[in-house]
Amino acid sequence: MAQSNTGQSPRFPFISDAALEPPAEWAELRAERPVTPVTLASGDEAALLTRYDDVKSLLSDPRFTRPGPGDNAARVADTESGGVFNSEMASVMPQYGAPHLKWRRRVGKWFTAKRMNALRPGMAAMAEQLIDEMVAKGAPGDLKSGVAFPLPVWVICDMLGVPDTDRDRFAHWSDVMLSMTRYTQEEFDAAQREFGRYMGGHIAAKRAEPGEDILSALIVDTGNDGERWSDALLSATGIGLLIAGHETTANMIAKMVAMLLADRSRWERLLADPSLVRTAVEESLRADANAGVGMMRYLSEDFEVAGTVLPAGTSAMCSMAAANRDERAFADASGMDLGRSPNPHLAFGAGAHACLGQPLARTELQVVLEVLLRKLPALDLAVAPAELRRIEGLAVGGLRELPVRW
Fold first, then answer.
1. Domains, in order of start, for the chain
2. What are the pLDDT digits (tens) for 163-205?
3. CA angle (31 as vertex; 25, 32 as ends), nearest 5
């Protein structure tokens, strides 16, 4: 249930001293208080889970889903509405049961391994072009703005049939909608309204002249039940894919490269054995010290976890990043083993709401790493790891920039 802070519970997300290091609170909570009340940016209170088994159990439980508009759930952001998690877009998208499964099946057709393999050559060519442009400007360069951000934007825009020349607008709207503390309710409402108007116009254009893209297909596809999607659902889906398809991956590309360069032996190992790229990507996802908000679940009935009974009406936050560093689930969980296999991390969640675009994110991360290793083997951080600056107040977490030399 949405409760105001009484001043007793710690504020969440926690802050870490270094951008690539996890908050100290994670280990303490996993050891002593695996289920603990925390205060969100909104001032509302939620129950935070930090152990691997507990997080996986809750995320996989079909009884519980993301909060709906009728639930008195905790708000994540400090805007009155609670941000993107409580936005119009979130209320339009089917969140549970058969409607959610139908939505995932129809959109999921575009994120199969076969489709991702078909996209790889184009991704690699774009990565090479972006790296060449960064190199031409001279060292040091910012790998985030030069490569990590524009690549996933280009890919998801191409998949949705929207012009990537509008990427600065997408970036601003996404930044506002994913922010927990940096924007006012008026700014959030404006971003949501402008993004919705833009996507509505794009869908109207696709109705008139369909292309070879996801939204065109969703407009004409009636699925197995003959149902056509409303413009509102098409728009919410397009906005959701644009936000998720570039913001999270752009941040993860930069963090992955930073983690691999922070200890030079990691980069050297990949240069010596490029076959480790796939497992190195998975380990980077597991080791990501993203101090973000994790995944919210609304408990519609009592739920017992780690010896604690959370009553119905509780808003529960699952810290997937904290769970991924649980020594009970991973040997040497605080270290990085680039050959770790199997690696059942929870970076993409679990259960019915596991990230739909994870095949795309994995492919982009692998391709960028492969091309960087091949084209810039001497790549290195241009600042000490401790000097890397984190973006504060963003739900997905990330670095402001990634200064590199080569």
1. 3-405 (1.10.630.10)
2. 888 878 887 887 787 765 667 888 888 988 999 999 999 999 9
3. 85
